[in-house]
Amino acid sequence: MYEPSVSPVNPMFVCLCLSGMNAAVRATVRVGLYTGAKVYFVHEGYQGLVDGGENIKLATWESVSMMLQLGGTVIGSARCMDFRAREGRMKAALNLVKLGITNLCVIGGDGSLTGANQFRTEWSTLLVDLVKAGKISDDEAKTSSHLNIVGMVGSIDNDFCGTDMTIGTDSALHRIIEVVDAITTTAQSHQRTFILEVMGRHCGYLALVTALACGADWVFIPEMPPDEGWEGHLCRRLADQRARGCRLNVIIVAEGAMGRDGKPIGSEDIKKLVEKNLGFDTRTTVLGHVQRGGTPSAFDRILGSRMGVEAVMALLEATPETPACVVSLSGNQAVRLPLIECVQVAANTSLFLLVLSRSFENNWNTYKMLAHINPPDSKSNINVAIVNVGAPCAGMNAAVRSAVRIGIIQGHNMLAVYDGFEGLAHGNVFLPSKYIEEISLTIAKLPHNMHVFFDTTCDRIKQSAAGTKRRVFIIETMGGYCGYLATMAGLAAGADAAYIYEDKFGIRDLEMNVEHLVQKMKTDVKRGLILRNENCNANYTTDFIFALYSEEGKGVFDCRKNILGHMQQGGTPTPFDRNFGTKMGSKAVLWLTDKLKEVYRHGRIFANTPDSACVLGMRKRALTFQPLAELIEQTDFEHRIPKTSWWLKLRPIMKILAKYNISLDTSEHAHMEHVIKKRVSMPAPLMKKHEEEVEEEEE
């Protein structure tokens, strides 16, 4: 348990410009201030650290307000050649010593973190040189004898080892999918082939997930160069799709894609191939830096906030013997990795000796299965029906498409049950196999991810409040009795409070929240945001809370309320929902296939064991199948929610970031783990090309 107190920790920040970074900066500043630390901004990245002066400024609570919805970084970033030289690093060390800063929080990609690792490694010798030069005293050198460093990874490429997702990647995927969806409509209308080139340097994550999310006909990524003769295979694939009645073809190309001979494969090369061999009307689109901008997604805001909190905790716990670490994400768990190991892997493996995350491998294996359907010659004699039950949610079409395709590949007869259980009761069961392409094309047409809906809606409401001072908005969210949406939306949008069923509250809590807003209106931040889950309390309704806040805030602030309703279930699904739904559908049918083989005996199926009925879901770091029988003890059936929820531990973070003086439970902080190196076989020409690139970079 951590209580707010005065602490000697003085974290400061070095940032590169990527979506979602502002959330990390905001969280680190506010949690640092919560601990009693002095927190400094370093403007313009390492260049500001070298130049010092006005580039290094004290941060305040208000200085990080209204920044969650902004892309890039509000404290700026810059390429810095000076920091690459020892003389530049000496200047940076001098600036830190003079300000008494011995804790550094670096937010950036592999280059930034490599620089941070070198800076820490040289720290003691830099101090010696500064003392010899008479620029610092022996006492100053003794006081600043050790430099603690914690890194947070910001990179749209998702190319850093040891983490499932880097800050900025999900936002970049949003930009890409928005373009893909727009292009798909025109491509269908004109029966065109579209080739989209996305960023990623030597990492194909963006291209791979985009291909998986949009059902692309082909994807070129650096990690997996196409086999010899790929040109003919690609053309046959596109021709087969057109013969089946598909009106468009989509090909995704990573900017670093290359063949097994080491030669680059670019979008224009592919266009010429398709036009020459097939005569298809073909267009190319190179997305470029549009992928790096825009409003950060809810996922990136929450990820940045969680990583910021974890970074401060790591600095608080650091000792001279503690290795510098990188905080990252594994599944839904925060982890810490030794900075030096991550840097070594980044420097020595780059493209060819990759530390592939499980999510990358799962994405690639799933795409390979789904991209090219080759039904077996013999049927399995197994009928599998797919039925959607309950309210509509994001990713359903992606899951159905994936399940149908995997089932066909397994030789099963795939059946679609229309209209849920009611349709099953009335016999509305059909064979969707012949409609497989139509299913593929409708992935992008059913419900939107609620996270994104909430962060954009709350952004607009807060912006409205910013234009009119002393205003508090009260928003009712859906979710039944589950407060996940209200909590995560509150964390992503910077809410002052989020009322949910799982976290009981009473009139005293409401009074405290009103008084908190009254005090807030005395600062420079004269706006408020309150979220309420629809079933959080039968008596403290949205109307009641609105009336209470309006009455108690009279003369200080006025209130507005908004009940979002079923708007939350509309729109198009996000990249995460499409990707997650696709992998869930695939994994479910493969599990079902294996289970049926186990229980099939003498022409009959004996499904009478507890594990014959399971729920598939994410638990900590992996997708797992859990028997329904086990879930009985873990479920509140009356309210249709789990008895325990991992995300409830994030609620104190939301309150601390809103400046409530509460305790923070640190008993389950992230522990230091190690990077596992996994070699990926690559052709000799590619390895030679990589070695040449490394030599050029070193020169």
Folded structure, characterized:
This protein is an alpha/beta fold and 699 residues long. Among the domains are: 12-165 and 296-350, Rossmann fold, CATH 3.40.50; 169-292, Rossmann fold, CATH 3.40.50.460; 451-569, Rossmann fold (3-Layer(aba) Sandwich), CATH 3.40.50.460. Helices cover 42% and strands 16% of the residues. A 7-stranded mixed β-sheet has the order 3-2-1-4-5-10-11, with helices on both faces. Residues 6-18, 349-354, 440-452, 677-687 and 693-699 have low confidence and may be disordered.
The number of distinct helices, counting runs of at least 4 residues, comes to 23
3D shape:
globular
CATH architecture annotation of the domain at 12-165 and 296-350: 3-Layer(aba) Sandwich
Low-pLDDT residue intervals, each spanning 5 or more residues: 6-18, 349-354, 440-452, 677-687, 693-699
The biggest sheet, with number of strands, parallel, antiparallel or mixed sense and barrel status, is:
7 strands, mixed
Helix content range: 40-55%
Strand-pairing-aware structural class: alpha/beta
CATH class annotation of the domain at 12-165 and 296-350: Alpha Beta
Which strand order spans the largest sheet, edge to edge or round the barrel? Answer: 3-2-1-4-5-10-11
Topology-level CATH name of the domain at 12-165 and 296-350: Rossmann fold
- CA(first)-CA(last) distance: 49 Å
Mean pLDDT: 84
How many DSSP-defined strands? 24
Beta fraction of the residues? 15-25%
Radius of gyration equals 27 Å
